[in-house]
Amino acid sequence: MDKRIQIWNVLHDGEITAIEQNGETLTMFVSIPYLRRRMKPIGDSFILTLSGLTRLEYCDYNGKSSSLAEEIEIAMPEILSTDSDAMPIKVNLTMGHLLFDCQSISFALDTGQPVEYETIEKVCEEYWMEWKARTEQSN
Description:
single chain; alpha+beta
């Protein structure tokens, strides 16, 4: 399991709300309140830091390329999923796709505290198990 890839399926439904690129490092805020509010201290987003970035491309579903920064100015793209199993990663978004290649990825809460991938994954699994149980109860 490569957390650089799997995180995009864990954070599906999250909106990319802000990015900053500094050389080969991309910092990205992903707002996903239904997962983030399960962690202390209170917040609504995760910070992803992609290091060793050698490729970053955004393309809408009409085939038009632009920068991710430009796309965020228009609307906040929502993460759907990835089918990738190796670099480069293609992340499907509501308005197109993001293609990138990086050496590593790290995670933090929007309050700045580092958080492990496994913690985010566990919170996600718990959320969806509870959601499934609620759905089955209502049927």
